[in-house]
Amino acid sequence: MDIREFLALGEELLAIPSTADRGAELERALEFTLGVVGPGFTVERFVSNGKPSALVYRGARRPQFRVLLNGHLDVVPGTPEQFQPRRDGDRLFARGAQDMKLSALAQAMAFRDAPAEVPVGLQLVTDEEVGGYDGTAFQLAQGVSADFVVIGEYSGLRLVVESKGLLTARVRASGRAAHSAYPWLGDNAVLKLMRAIDGVLAVYPVAAEEVWRTTVNVARVETGGTAVNQVPADATAWLDIRYTAEDGDFAGRTPDEVAAYLTSLCPADVVVEVDRVEPPHHADPEGADVAALQRAARAQGYSGDFLRKHGAADSRFYHQHGIDAVIFGIGGDGQHGPDEYADLTTVEPYYRALVDFLSGVR
């Protein structure tokens, strides 16, 4: 890897505001990265709900991949300044620097430079930040498969073999409208909703520090009322819940079962609707491919330690298909925040670890 070339390409990629609402920019980020891979490969293109993705491999026919490198090129929204990359020593600041354009770019180069006989594919998607259903999940539904998957989300060259499950729910409270000067004539739905939220958070209190347990985030609260001088007749709260595999109240449960459980934590007349329940991700830490990737990281001077992630990633889709997937990426900090940056000292070791790992795959 020529690090100067990589940084020049990386800054160009980071300057593309490839957010979910900019379809043309998603396409531009995808085409840019495919251009880095270069000619001589088969490129399969997919589109689902306007979100483009690609699958790159050698040969005329898509194989059952021995290893698949997965990277996403979409980012969460940011200020215009965040799409103007800037360096400060070994840090490169920009939206997507850590999560995960630079890892995806390094994956593209490692794929390009891997020995030709290695049965590896490169999967580039543009919808991970909004769920991954039109990228990785869609490609899996079209028959794409692999024995082992390396997802380039940031990890500082450690291996994420376990991630929390994800579910989203809406808590709805109903009341009776009235003039706010005469509250005894109404039934305030917001107050009822607040009691419901308190009931849920009593079981799942807001974490004050990192802890491996189920967490609940109250993401949004809305009411249909528009007048300040009116008792609201309805109110809704959106919950984002991340749960561990050990939490039997969520793990292995259907949406209806989860809705019934959450309803039991709320006052009467409050309705809970569960939109989706996605299982935790797990990869076998004793697997041969995991061990080989760990050795490759250690050969670059990194621990290759195992990590557990609180957030969900596209690895969950592979887990649902019985395919081991690990998260393995560069380092950095500030994901989704105003000061997101990539640790540039991890880029070359990451690339070399990938090439070393792929060179040993048979």
Describe this structure in words.
By secondary structure, this protein is α+β, with helices and mostly antiparallel strands. The protein has two domains: 3-163 and 280-359, Aminopeptidase (3-Layer(aba) Sandwich), CATH 3.40.630.10; 165-278, Alpha-Beta Plaits (2-Layer Sandwich), CATH 3.30.70.360. The chain is built from nine helices and 19 strands. It has helices spanning 3-14, 23-37, 97-113, 136-141, 189-203, 255-264, 288-299, 315-320, 347-359, and strands spanning 42-48, 51-57, 65-72, 86-88, 91-93, 120-125, 146-151, 159-163, 165-174, 178-179, 215-223, 230-231, 234-243, 270-278, 281-282, 306-309, 324-327, 331-333, 341-343. The chain has a six-stranded mixed beta sheet. Strands 4-5-19-18 form a four-stranded antiparallel beta sheet. Strand 4 (86-88) and strand 5 (91-93) form a beta hairpin. Helix 1 packs across helix 3 (97-113) and helix 7 crosses helix 9 (347-359). The longest helix has 17 residues, at 97-113.
Please name the defining characteristics of this protein.
single chain, 362 residues, alpha+beta, Aminopeptidase, Alpha-Beta Plaits, 2 domains, six-stranded mixed β-sheet, four-stranded antiparallel β-sheet, 19 strands, elongated
